[in-house]
Automatic annotation (TrEMBL):
SUPFAM superfamilies: Chromo domain-like
Domain of life of the native organism: Eukaryota
Name of the featured protein: Protein mrg1
Bias (Basic and acidic residues): 92-102, 114-126
Key words of the record: Chromatin regulator, Nucleus, Transcription, Transcription regulation
InterPro entries per UniProt: Chromo-like_dom_sf, Chromo/chromo_shadow_dom, MRG, MRG_C_sf, MRG_dom, MSL3_chromo-like
Signal peptide feature range: none
Organism lineage: Eukaryota, Viridiplantae, Streptophyta, Embryophyta, Tracheophyta
Domain Chromo: from-to ranges: 27-94
Gene: MRG1
Amino acid sequence: MVSSKDDSSTDSENSSGDVPDSKPSTYFEGEKVLAYHGPRIYEAKVQKAELRKNEWRYFVHYLGWNKNWDEWVGADRLMKLTEDNVLKQQALDKKRGMEKNTKSGRSTQAKPKSSADVKLDKEETKSNVPKGKKRKADSGTEKGNVSAEKLVKIQIPSTLKKQLVDDWEFVTQQNKLVKLPRSPTVDDILTKYLEYRSKKDGMMTDSVGEILNGIRCYFDKALPSILLYKKERQQYHEAVSDIVSPSSVYGAEHLLRLFVKLPELLAYAKIEEETLTRMQQKFLDFLKFLQKNQGTFFLSAYDGPKASEGSG
């Protein structure tokens, strides 16, 4: 996270100097593969292959999906595009009920994170402008064709609502920014919540882990599109790169903004009402956890902008 620059120089050295002495790459640039993303498998194409710290890393593009989903993955996330592996993918799709989603216009070999996908793709298509100029309004979400009845209601505790107001005032009125990288990060907070639930429930449940993975995925994709104020965009481009995810840099301040947008994001996903109700309960429990640790997770004051950020 903090040492990403150091890592990049090390990666460069490894990729140029260590290749002959290390194990050969399993996949080559331009090769079509199958890639795990969350609990599902998707068809992808290897764009780049680099040796980092004696481990091969691959930059993949998920076929049929916006390039914003492109990411670096390890060999453990990839499989050769063979008949046996395709059958494995199809079996996994059937198990998770992927057939129900074919009406949405996506094939069953769709890309990750079922809920956020459709909405965020719509954001990209609708705005159709470069990053940094996506929205004229810094706050508020366009509801489009989603009816109010469909929106999931997420009740944000009053103290966290005040936190959102303070957050808005620091950035938009006082020209201050959250100093990055934050500690704890979004990843840290999600891990702490998982530990908290595990101790409270006496066990680690798959459903909680899946919800937290969903929140992380939503956050990483939604942050540059709809969670940043205009004055924060320059800082984002300086702090986040292809190999650094927002959830490993940003903290509770930006994570809380996600819960304001989640009702609309979920409305574009085809999720059964019973499942939405359970998700809603888990979101509320997570918000109570944030509220309980508000003094630890959130900043009480932001920093004034640096010279490089001021021009942004």
